[in-house]
Amino acid sequence: MFKKVLIANRGEIAVRIARACRELGVRAVAVYSDVDRASLHVRLADEAYPIGPAPSRESYLVVEKILGVGRYAGCDAIHPGYGFLAENPALPRACVDAGIAFIGPSAAAMEQLGAKTAARQIARDVGAPTVPGTLSPINTVDEAREIAREIGFPVILKAVAGGGGKGMRSVAGENQLAPAWRDATSEALNAFGDSRLYLEKYLERPRHIEIQVLADHHGHFVYLGERECSVQRRHQKVMEEAPSPIMTAELRKAMGEAAVKLARAGTYTNAGTVEFLVDAQRNFYFLEMNTRLQVEHPVTEMVTSLDLVKLQMRIAAGEPLPFSQEEIELRGHAIECRIYAEDPDNNFFPSPGKIVDCGVPTGPGIRLDAGIYAGWTVPNEYDPMLGKLIAWGGDRKEALARMGRALQEYYASGIKTNVSLFRRILASGDFQKGAVYTRWLDDFLSAGPALEGLEDEEESRAEQAAAIAAFLWHRRHADGANAFEASTIPESRWKTESRREQVNREPQP
Ligand code: ADP
Fold first, then answer.
1. For the whole model, what pTM was predicted?
2. In 3-state terms, what secondary structure has residue 324?
3. Which residues pair with 50 in a beta bridge?
4. Which candidate, 105, 247, 344, 443, has a CA 20 to 30 Å from the CA of 266?
5. Averaged pLDDT score across all residues of the chain
6. Span from the CA of 255 to the centroid of ligand 1 (angstroms)
């Protein structure tokens, strides 16, 4: 196993990786931008190094800076987390040159399977069903029109370099094609520096279901079941669960085997996710592969009792997978909510700022993967995800009940959070039945004003109660508010210093 791992990330995922390092007896090395000096991932690491100003293109996205720290600190491996450099082949390539292990696939596998059109071609070659559409980028809007006529509207334009729902436009009919082309092209150029688009048939009311795969350096491939990720806002996942409420043993096997075939064809190693859209008849279509750890990996961990980050590290260190496909068992049901500092009453506008106090749900079946603490200021330069709340239950009903209970215990005062959104989703009949599709939440939110007043009132009562509870708790514990940090984390000056700069907010990809 490695001795020292550099974590090329921040926030909850950097904390998650540092925890895995601790459990394996590996030293965790953090990097931080100027606004992240006091971040939790820095506090929890064994060593931490500054890498420059807040904008990520001057810090977290600079391969040379990351490698520079890796060499200086004597790291033998780098974990990229998700976002930032996680899907940039320049990082694994630089790692090879520096003689540092990259905890992820090779640059070549990342290039083949991570590029959307190239991966669609491989899927086609191995016989995995893909959404009808183009296998290479389209050059002009006229070409797009011709192809769209052939496969029939509605279609969806997508950025070749896409991610996070950016550079994507659905097009209902021919008259919408030209403006959608313009919007998607410029959005893709802005977000990825690559304006190339391709086109797919737009599926009506599909589900997004993805398969977690693992591959070692000895030719072993396994799939760890699926995650249902259909609860999305504007094509971005909000809530995920495992297993999918519509899954059958046959479908799981078929999707799992298709995912493994694709990974094998791309000579993939380490953890990866193969995403599919599934229609009402349970036909599945390959969407894309994410060549990294996913935000929603904890739901898979909860139902498989496996630790994906530790497995990633073991694989990168050259160990063979310690189990076969037949030995993987799924137990119970897990659900995850992505908690953001954003204002659900103001179109989910980011709401960074100082966290005055926060309540941490615990108790049976609850896990909180967060990158925050009371007194910390959520910077406005990055993706405002505070963390993920995960609930496990013996069955779906118990998992949902536990999530509902944990959401009542969660609060973060001083900033706005999207917690009320999850309460609304959990209370909806459709969600309880598992009757969702990728646009379900958008439809639900645009249809729901009648309920809104009532829920707001309920919510404000809950918020008042939480604030009073927090106040009383503080008074009772006078100096003990940071008891956890004070008792477990040694103090040092650089750790407690915080500097805040107002620069343009740069979202994490
Ligand atoms: P990104 O990489 O930007 O996240 P994806 O290709 O993974 O983009 O798609 C994200 C989401 O967009 C999907 O989960 C789904 O909701 C929607 N989507 C993508 N392709 C289609 C399609 N062909 N038909 C219908 N919805 C789609």
1. 0.88
2. coil
3. 32
4. 247
5. 90
6. 17
